[in-house]
Amino acid sequence: MIRVLLVDDQPLIRSGFRALLDLEDDIQIVAEAPDGEEGLALAQEHLPDVALIDIRMPVMDGIEATRRIAADPALAGVHVVILTNYGMDEYVFEALRAGAAGFLVKDIVPEDLLHAVRVAARGDALLAPSLTRKLIQRYVDQPLPTATDGVLAELTGREREAVALVAQGLSNDQIADRMVISPMTAKTHVNRAMTKLRTRDRAQLVVLAYETGLVVPNGR
Fold it and tell me: What is the pTM assigned to this prediction?
């Protein structure tokens, strides 16, 4: 059973999401909160698998709530999915840096919401190729980073290669095909890179790959 926490200051949004998720046999809403502060307390109390958190709320916003969840070892199993009305904006990038597994726009179709909850519960990032392209575009006009060797020094050559492919939006199976290895080995390379780079998930791995210059957007 996938345990879900809903955190949004709009009761109508919460009730709509609850009505949809409650219809699924494998998903259970364990708690709801109107702001990040209460959401954090409920996450600590209920230890959900997935926390759907609005990015802009009173008292404590979704970015700070995400940051505190990511920093709490007791909440390592909580996968945060950010909810936004605005699509790919600066707040979303901050949330990804803070530790969110991905984000959803609130007008998402029901099937995609259900898929997203299940993907997040597995510990995978919500980084479809379309989202990865937007992440790439975010860095096209930024200054090229320098002095990245220290950040990436712990990675083996194969781990760097795997991270670069993650940053291009490839799945473990696709990475395996590209590197001519098994999917399990590809997953191992990615997981070891996340551990060494202290990233919670693939979303943060993609952000780091571009911020360190390991991957440079086309056109640079």
Answer: 0.69
